[in-house]
Every structure is written in C-alpha cells, then in structure tokens.
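REVIEWER CHECKLIST
Item 1: Sequence provided? yes
Item 2: Single chain? yes
Item 3: Sequence as submitted:
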Amino acid sequence: MPSRRATGFRVRLYGRETPALVGVVTRRRDWELLLRERWYRVPARTAPEGLDKARFLAFYQTGTFGPEKWAVNYYSEVRHVRRVRRIDLLPGEPDHPRAQDEYYRVDVAGLKPLPGPIPSRRLRRIVFIPTSLERLLRAREVNDLFRTSPIEDILYDGLKDDGLEPERQYFVREDGAGSMLDLTLFCRDGNLNIECDGDRWHTGPERAASDRERDNRLASGGWTILRFSGGDIRDRPGYCLGTVRKAVQTLGGPARGGRRRRKE
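Item 4: Structure as written out by the authors:
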C-alpha cells in the first residue's frame, strides 16, 4: 500500500468539506455486487441522516475480507440514490422474509483505492460514519474520519496532540441501554467518557434530564464522565485538556495494549 501523504490530521473546514459517508460491508456477496453492478444497499429503516447528500461513499470491510479486514480501503463517487424494495434489488430471492422491505439503492462509480488503508485500531461497532472526501484522503485511522461537530474536532485533535488515543462515537451498552459516547479513553483502572456539549443539543430541562439519566447509568457501570461546554472547548482548551489529563492519571494512565485487535 502507498504510504500516508500527511503526517497530521487537521481538517476543520466544515463549510468547505465535500460530504461523504462510510458504510459497512460484511458479506462477500455484497462486495461482489458492488464491484460488478456498482450499487450498495441500505435498509430504509436504518438509513443514516445525510445519505441523500453524500457525494462520495467509502466502505469499511469486516473480518471476512482477509488482509483488507477491519479497515476502510476504497471509496467511490455517488451517482444516484433511490428508494426501492428488496425484491427489486434481488429478484432471485422472492421468498426472503424482507423481500418487501424498502431499501435505498446507492449507485456508484467504480471503486478507487484510498491513499492507504484507514484501520480501526480496536474492536468496535461501526455502522455508518459521517465524513468528507477531505477526511477520507487524509485519515490515518477510523477515528480521524468522523465529521460530527467542530467542538468535538477541537478536543479530539488536542487529545491526540497530547499523546492520547480517544475513540470517537464509541457505542457501549450499560444496564440494558445503548449509548453513543462522543470521546472515550480506556485507562488501566477504568474508562473515561468525555462529552462535548454543544449549545444547540444540550439545552432545556428535557435534554438535561436525559443526559443525567445516561450519565448515572454509565457511572453505575464504572465509567467516569466529563462534560465540557462548547464555550469551554473553544475558549479554554487548556482547561479542558488539563482536566482530561488529570482524570486519566487518576484512572491509572492509558490502558496498555489499546492497539491490539481481538478476533472479530
């Protein structure tokens, strides 16, 4: 594979980024359809926000794919997105239990290899990743891809500059309920969840109650939670990073072997 063309990851363009999406391919048959017929399917009931706006689509390949597993290796330009029934996509399976379910068919151009593989450094749940063409061409690992909010980018970049390796949008299940965590750090004596509270999404009594319930659920499962406002992240980044460093030290420092992969 070609070597990386960039040694750092600094893309805070937002208004100028080209919308893209990373999807997941788990089966070789779907990969063969993508190569041969140049389309990718997404169940309508689980379709990600922004699917219709994505101009490029990239693909995370799971453990089925041998030397290319657990990484994003290829991308393509999106030609067309339309809503169809599964039976129209796969007419040879009329008796499939989901034959009448609706899917999005995403027609793409031919696949192109990325400048280098974008691996996931640890076993984690990956479904769809909102990203951009610019991030796809510069990312060194999966966490570099996420295009969620500018304040999350700022804190993520700062933590990486400090030598820490946060996971972004990391899914966990505690007490029977799932949560998607903004930033996660795994430490020797416990795990740390860092939330970036933007003014738009974390205001009002209902949202505050939801955040409190979620934090309590995580804390009862042994998590340490830190929350920073958008203002603090933008205007007092040193305070935010110092608080995270202190929490990591209290939890025994970064966990060893964080880069090791378990069998998928």
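Item 5: Key structural point noted by reviewer: The longest strand covers residues 71-85.
Item 6: Recommendation: ____
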